[in-house]
Design goal:
The protein is α/β, with parallel strands linked by helices and about 325 residues long. Helices cover about 30% and strands about 20% of the residues. Strands 3, 4, 5, 6, 7, 14 and 15 form a seven-stranded mixed β-sheet that branches. A six-stranded parallel β-sheet has the order 10-9-8-11-12-13, sandwiched between helices. It has a two-stranded antiparallel sheet with strand order 1-2.
């Protein structure tokens, strides 16, 4: 099979022909249709993501994928040959990633692809959707009528978090720049232009100085600090997917509110709790089938041969949605 190999950090990939992996008794072999690109991939490639525990040299990166199962291990009972699936399956901790034509995958990490989206759209979902679900459902347990503030609602995790919260009946606000207002309105969120409102101003205007029930920080740094002052007293809950560095908890403590972090990669690195990822994606497929969730996907088409262009598009911030790499031959009708 063809695969993109990383020999050294911060160096170009090398396309190589390597043996197709063989699925063991507890794995499935997936013919990969598309691989989703995440900011994490760029950090790993540049050697700036030690927490991902990538094994070098000769690493195959890429965490997200969609594809079709072509063989099934003897101990696998919940999938069969021909199933269209998607998942966050590798690229970290020494596991083969998705920038290759095939991957042997732990089926606990997979779910059946929703029938009303393409393979390209499905490949956009796993990492950002699992992260958003863990934040909104597992940590915050949002309820109908909850007021939710999502920082960065036009981003990958943000736009999915908005849709999950809306599907649960929450009232969702989001901080965005002025050029992103229509995007988040179309997702059902109430936009807050962070270039025009201070934290104090939007808390006053949108919550009558009460604060939000839930605040999701997808940006980190000073945005996380601001989140600690934006939650409701006593019952408010802040969740961050980038809770790194040093932060004063005093503003949060003075409000009597709570905080949770999300580390989506842990099951891949540790091998523990992987079934939960598959269960999350199964629930997400249901939301997609009912029309309650749809990923924003960049309209450009990229292949393994043009991955450098895809990465540049992500780095310059001009992508309109998630960037996806087409892995399969476009003439394969089952993987289009």
């Amino acid at each position: 099979m063809k695969a993109l190999i990383l020999k050294q950090y911060n160096k170009p990939y090398i396309m190589e022909e390597i043996p197709i992996p063989i699925a063991n008794e507890r794995q499935v072999l997936v013919k990969i249709s598309h691989s989703g690109v995440n900011p994490l991939d760029l950090k790993i490639k540049s050697g700036q993501a030690a927490h991902a525990q990538t094994k070098m040299p000769d690493a195959i990166l890429g965490t997200d994928m969609s594809g079709v199962i072509v063989s099934v291990g003897n101990e696998v009972k919940n999938f069969k040959v021909g199933d269209a699936v998607y998942g966050m399956v590798g690229g970290i901790g020494g596991a083969q990633g998705t920038l290759a034509e095939y991957a042997a995958v732990d089926p606990d990490l997979l779910a059946l692809k929703a029938t009303n989206i393409s393979f390209k759209e499905a490949a956009a979902l796993p990492l950002i959707t699992i992260t958003a679900w863990e934040a909104m459902i597992d940590r915050a347990d949002i309820q109908k009528g909850s007021t939710v503030l999502v920082h960065g609602g036009a981003g990958g995790v943000g736009h999915i978090a908005i849709q999950i919260a809306r599907a649960k009946g929450a009232i969702v606000y989001t901080t965005v720049s002025s050029d992103q207002i229509e995007t988040v309105r179309n997702l059902g969120a109430i936009p807050i232009d962070y270039t025009k409102y201070s934290v104090k101003e939007y808390i006053t205007e949108f919550t009558n100085d009460e604060g939000f029930d839930v605040v999701l920080d997808t940006i980190g740094g000073t945005v996380l600090d601001a989140s600690f002052t934006a939650v409701k007293r006593y019952t408010g809950h802040v969740i961050s997917i980038l809770g790194w560095g040093s932060h004063s908890l005093a503003p949060l403590s003075f409000r009597g509110a709570s905080y949770s972090g999300v580390f989506t990669l842990y099951p891949l690195i540790s091998g523990k709790h992987r079934k939960h990822h598959g269960k999350i994606l199964t629930e997400v497929s249901k939301l997609i089938d009912t029309g309650d969730l749809k990923p924003l996907v960049d309209g450009n088409d990229y292949t393994m041969d043009s991955i450098d262009d895809a990465y540049k598009k992500m780095e310059d911030g001009s992508a309109q949605g998630k960037i996806i790499i087409s892995i399969a031959n476009n003439q394969d009708e089952n993987l289009s």
